[in-house]
Amino acid sequence: MVTKQSKLILYRTVIRPVVTYASETWVLKETIIKKLLVFERRILRRIFGHTKENQIWRVKTNEELDKLIKHKNIINYIKSQRLSWFGHVQRMPDTRKVKKIFYWKPLTKRSQGRPKY
Question: Which of 65, 77, 70 is nearest to 18 (CA)?
Fold first, then answer.
């Protein structure tokens, strides 16, 4: 039998990095955040199982799951990865294309609305 701790380590080392691949470049909109949190909670509920209180089984609440993972959810992981990537780009030489693109400003603005053709 695999322990809960082993399952949690497996989630953090295999599943979460696959799901958040290239998340440094994502725009974190509210809908994406909600979907990622739902995905993570679903996996955590499978790992930690139900709780038995007074001879009655119940599903763990989101707050209980958050305490079990010590507030290290998938969104905090993505934000730390983004900050790490930002530091990596800042340390690059100014001649690198990635850094040039990072500081690039467009010369004109796009017109508002749907294109006419």
Answer: 77
